[in-house]
Each structure stands twice: as C-alpha cells, then as structure tokens.
Fold this protein.
Amino acid sequence: MNGSVIKAGVIHPGQMGVAIAAALASVGHTASWASQGRSDETVNRAEQSNLVDLLTLEALCNDSDFIFSICPPDQAPSVAQQVADLGFNGTFVDCNAVAPATTDLVSNIVTQQSGTFVDGGIIGPPAVKSGTTRLYLSGKSATAVAELFIDSVVDARVLGSSSGAASALKMAYAGWTKGSAALLMTQFALAQQQKVESALLEEWELSQPGLTTRLDSGCSSMAPKAWRFTGEMHEIAKALEDAGLSRYWFDGAADVYECLSDLKNKPDIQRKEVIDALLKTMNDGSA
Amino acid sequence: MNGSVIKAGVIHPGQMGVAIAAALASVGHTASWASQGRSDETVNRAEQSNLVDLLTLEALCNDSDFIFSICPPDQAPSVAQQVADLGFNGTFVDCNAVAPATTDLVSNIVTQQSGTFVDGGIIGPPAVKSGTTRLYLSGKSATAVAELFIDSVVDARVLGSSSGAASALKMAYAGWTKGSAALLMTQFALAQQQKVESALLEEWELSQPGLTTRLDSGCSSMAPKAWRFTGEMHEIAKALEDAGLSRYWFDGAADVYECLSDLKNKPDIQRKEVIDALLKTMNDGSA
C-alpha cells in the first residue's frame, strides 16, 4: 500500500459501507464501526467482514482519523451532527447520495467542529472486485482520501477542490439510472392498467429492441431496493430545483419507489408482481 | 388494393397527415384536404403530395366517407367539434396522441352527430416505406379503417373493439420515448450546471455504454420538434393520473419541451445548444 496506515470509522456498514471498509482494510488500514443500536443484520454483516467493533459512536469518533458516512440520504445531516457533537475533528467523508445543498449543510456541521469535510459520491455496486465501483471525491482534502484506496478494489477519483461536485455527479448519474427505471415501470403499468400491455411488448419488439429486457431487469433489480430509494429521489428533486430545473420528475420517481417499498429484499421478483404492486399501491392512495 | 375505393379527408396535413393521406392515395383511395386558413407551409406540403384541395372544411366534410384527424393533441376535441358542427356522419378517425379520457370526449362529440368513431394511435415516423410506421386502431369500426391501408406503407393494426386502446398504447409508448429523452437531457443539464459534465460523460463511457450517443441523438432529433410535444406531455400526464399513477413525470417533461420550443425546426442542432437553451430558459422562469 501507499501512504500511512490510518484508522477509518464507517457509519453505518450496510452493503456499501462494508465494501468500502473492506477495501480500506485490504490495503492495511484499520476499519472500524460501532454496533450500539444497530440491527442484527448489520451486526452479522460487519462481523462477517471482520470490521473492528468499537461498540459506541463516541469510541469510533475518538479512535478514527477518517469517518466515512454511508447511510440513507435523509439521515446524512443527523449522522454528521452526531459525529460533530462528539467532538470529531478528523476528516469526515460524506459518501451519501445527497443534493449539493445537503452537502453544504453537512459540510457546515463538520467544519464548525473543526473537522475537515470531503464530499463523496459512489457509483457502482458494493465493490468486491476492481473495475466496478468508483468513489468520486471533491473538496480540499479529496486527494488525501483518494490515496487511502490505492491498490484496493475501489476506484477513488478526485473531481476537484470544490465541495459539492461529487454529490452533483452522483445526482446526475443516479437521476438517469433510477429515474429511467421508474419511468419505464410507470409506462408499462399504464399499458397494463389499460389492457394494452401485449401490444406494447409487441411494438417494443419492433421498434425498441431490448426495452422489454430492460424493464424486466429493472423490476427484478430495483424493486427489492426501492425501500431505500425514496430519500435519494427527494435529494435528486432538490438538486434539480436548486439548479433551476424541473423537480417534478423525481416527485414521480419517489412515488414509484415508495409504492414498491413493501417488496424490500424480496428475491427473484418478476415484472408482473412489481407492476401489480405499483398499480395497487398507487390506486390505494398509499403513496 | 382490397375493398372499395373511399374518399378520405385529412385534417390537417402536417408531415404525418400527408404521409397517411399519401398511403391512402397509393392504394387508390381519394385523399383530400381543405386549405382555407392553413399556413403556406401546409399548402406547399399538400400540393407536393398531390392531395385534392377541397378548399373548405365544409366541402371536406360533405365529400368524405372517412375523416382522419391528425393535429396537435390539444386541438383534437375542437377539430372533432368543427366536423360534427358541419353535420359529418361518416367515420371519424382520431389519430392524435391523446389520453383515453380525451378520446372519450372526442368520441362523444362525433357520435352525438351520428358519426362513427374510431380511435387511432400512430407509432413511428411519417411513413415513406413499409415497416416503419404502425397505425393502431380500436373501436367497433376499427377493422373497416384498417382495411383501407392494405398494401400501403402504413401498417394498420386493430387493437380490439374498445375505443381508447389505441390512444392508451400511444400514451404508454410515447411516454417512454419522449419522457426518457427529456429526462436524460435534464440530468445532463444538471451535470453541466454543476460543472461535472466531463466526469459524467467519462462515467457513462465506463458504466452506461451508448448513453452519450443516446443523449446526443435525442438532442438533435427531439429539440427541433419540441414545440409540438408539450400538448402530448400534458395528455400523457392526464392518462397516468386517470390510471391512478403519478402524473408528475410529464409535468417535468412538458417543462423541458416547452423550454426548447424556440428551437423549432432548427437543423443540425447539437447537444450544447440544446442543454444551454434548457438551462437558460428554465432559469429565466419562462416555462
């Protein structure tokens, strides 16, 4: 590995957080977490990945040079606040899918406590091999964070010294991938509700080759994760609004993913179940 | 050709209308239009296609067995009303991109005047050769209309006897093609406004192959036609809302296409000009 060994704390180790922690540990850094108040699922995941459990957030803050915040987007400011309240003055890397304005808010929380703030945005699946996952970083200390990942499976890339760039890239990228998947489900749901879904599939075969496959893979991959997408859709809506663009798209996308939240972690889910759930929940007015 | 020669009136012959009229004429039917009050551009287009000019809408209604309405979506009910007011009691085929509820409204206007209503939805470009363009038809007399196109370049397909199915298919189909193009422009505009567009293009090269090409071809093909998409976006929003789904998507899409309306018919337009126009008009609050 390059550079010095550092102590990294990860809040909270979901699938992505564990992957980031494992990448750091793989090149000699110490990767820790705090189990207090976390679910059995998270405990199991962290234990399987040999993360050091420092038990409390206080211990984690006291014993870390770098904190990586990887949590649901709507919790990003409160995680930063908890860390700041515990007097952390190392480098805080917010890796969450949040709007640049939320990044500013988190940055202010961190720096008011004399911490150093680095903006991060993760694109790709939880990394288990090289070449799948980029951690974009921006802000004055972005390079120092990127260097921690040298020789690991995480491709850390510095986007410049302006905080907010990494978040903006994540918003623009995820807005297409998650937004277009939800739009495609919505259009198919319209066809199904109007009893023209067979004709739509036939027309797609003729003029939109591959679109049926895209719908089906979107249904099976997105629906089980939908429960954690709603907050991200709100952040993308905010990012668009702040940029003077239309936020409506992601009010629509948030509705879709909220309607699918009951399908959480469901394996082998097929198109029909997803579209039925979307139509039923929308029509129940539950979202 | 199969079946009897009929007299068809087309209101109003834009590019798509002329293509439908030419397809009918190519298999021996008489295709007419009415030039009164139309633009020089429309007159030239109709003359080049050898449509019979019956001068007034009244003459067109008196002398046609079938009327094909092919107009901007927001004008569909008023075109039907004008035709009904002139006592037309033949078969009225509404080929416009409208919500099923708008189709019902048009159908009521037509049948109150003892006319026969057929719902139509066109998918594909103005047809000049076989295999590119489908005219979907639904309603009790859909088969009679489909038969008129036998051996022509227009692939007329009957979707069943329920009025509304052809419109619903068009809404579901166009919602994806036009909606996803506008969503992609919006996400790139966000990246550009945040000065991370180069990073987004690089990331797309890695993980979304073909997406840059898709953005560029969407910009050059959609922006010059954007001026006539806004009404269609409102109809798709209505179709979704009536189906119990989120209409927000197409409030967003309508905003995008409205912002691009000044680029009407502009040739060789490139990504940069489109995204700049989108950001500028959105931020001016003009849309």
Q: What stands out?
A: Chain B has a mean pLDDT of 95.
